[in-house]
Amino acid sequence: MTTAVVVGGGPNGLAAAIAMAAEGVSVTVLEAADEVGGGARSSEAILPGLLHDHCSAIHPMAIGSQFLSRFGLDRHGLTWRWPDIDCVHPLDGGSAGVLHRSVGQTAAGLGRDGSRWQRAFGYPASRFDALNEDIMGPLLRVPHHPLKLARFGAPTVLPASTFARVFRTEEGRALFGGVAAHAFRPLHYPMTSAIGMGIIAAGHRHGWAVAEGGTQSITNAMVALLTDLGGKIETGVPVQTASQLPPADVTMFDLAPSAVAGILGDRLPRRILRAFNRFRRGPGAFKVDFAVDGGVPWTNPDAHRAGTVHVAGSYSELAATEREIHAGRMPERPFVLIGQQYLADPQRSAGNVHPVWTYAHVPNGYTGDATKAIIAQIERFAPGFRERIVGSAVRSTTQMAAYNLNYVGGDIMTGSKDIRQLTFGPRITLSPYTIGLPGMYICSAATPPGPGAHGMCGANAATLALSYLARRA
Which Gene3D superfamilies match (predicted)? Predict the structure, then answer.
């Protein structure tokens, strides 16, 4: 029987395993931690009954994932839930940029920027399912929908700072900038519009959904499906050297490139070993979960209904903050992302105490404590927040790396999404999943299309692996 080993059991490793098991391959997943899921896990971190997502939390890219749709994970317990409002970016003074699932509703709330928002995102949102076939794989390939991709893709090469000038209101600029800042890149760099435009278009098509019962539900559904297909999972099995790899026809690595280099060493072609060891890391995330009595007392009324809130102030302040962290300096007022998943999924709360998920952008490997800065930023737009906190749980950049070995220095993106790495992945090649050894592939979020619980990095790599097996047959 044809066999495969997947090293690493995050969403991409599980996706690769499922895709191969569905074609009759005997698959074993080896996970170093005591449970699979990587960043797609949830637990009662502070109080009994209060459910917090560990990392991955809001899923505009996952809900439309070709992989998740293909395998119908709803049959294995995955249910999506939506908040009333997808995202709010509050400003000093009480106003805010408000992102609704509907392009028209979003545009209507942006005043004189409404027509500009409609022109920017109406087309890609209406055609997102077709665009998804191209943007959720390697960028340098013959596209399935070249004309649609060209129309969508032309603005994505711009710096976010340039694209933001399309908007005349502070609300419009800040709303776009906050989503673009998910790239963890200085917003004046080329191609920083790409991730923001992709997330916004996906959200206008499918919404910023959460998984009922926590992001853990995505992992649980994938595990159930893999088990049904005959796949096996072994936890608490770290792989640090090539000698620890079981014999297999295919070996997949849901690991950071540096970890693959550490395992395989000189077995890798020299140019690939060098590229993997030089793989650039992005800034870090400093995460704090809060238990909040009565929820966050936002000044802006729409923020009370939003699944995600971006706390960063104006666009210019946000841009300055991202420049600081990229330069290795901790800003006084960091960009803070807040998740209020309980608004869409009330079972996550314990009575009137609600789980509030947050993280701040910080320099990679930041050794300080960003908790006070996070609280101060929220308090800035929600006076009285501090008094409502009844418990908290911190995960620093160091603890992030210990929690998930791919998150070196708190880098939850698994690598800097600069032009080269966003375009090519871990090395300059037209085949970002291959590593120069027959039957071996990398399938982590370091490869296209990048981070998220969509599983597409693993699914794309598995397609190559299955082609390799077919040629051998």
Answer: FAD/NAD(P)-binding domain
pLDDT at 145: 45
Query: What integer is the mean pLDDT of 425-449?
Result: 94
Q: Which residue has the tokens 């060098």?
A: 274
Task: Cite the beta strand spans of 42-173 per DSSP E.
Answer: 42-43, 52-53, 80-81, 85-90, 96-99
Alpha-carbon distances, residue 203 vs 209, 220, 252 (angstroms): 8, 24, 31
Average per-residue pLDDT for the chain: 93
- Average of per-residue pLDDT across 299-314: 98
Question: pLDDT tens-digit profile of 170-192?
Answer: 999 999 999 999 999 999 999 89
Within 8 A by CB and 6+ apart from 57, the residues are 210, 215, 339, 341, 357
Question: What Cα–Cα distance (Å) separates residue 47 from each residue in 43, 56, 208, 370, 439?
Answer: 10, 20, 26, 22, 46
Q: Name the residue ranges covered by the structural domains of the chain.
A: 3-78+213-279+415-472, 80-210+282-403
Burial 379-412 (b: 16+ CB within 10 A, else e): bbbbeebeebbeebbebbbeebbebbbbbbbbbb
Specify the DSSP element, H or E, that contains 360.
Answer: strand 353-362
Superfamily classification of domain 3-78+213-279+415-472? FAD/NAD(P)-binding domain (3.50.50.60)
- The residue-averaged pLDDT of 97-123 equals 96
* pLDDT at position 126: 82
Phi, psi (degrees; rounded to nearest 5) at 97: -85, 130
Output the six-digit token pair for 412. 């939850």
CA distance 428 to 347: 45
Could you list the beta-strand ranges (E) of 120-168: none
The pLDDT of residue 151 is above 70? no
**Integer Rg of the chain from CA:** 21
Return the structure tokens found at 347: 């079972």
Cα 222 from Cα 38, distance rounded (Å): 13
Q: Is the dihedral of CA 48, 355, 81, 14 positive or negative?
A: negative
Tokens at 165, concatenated? 């000038």
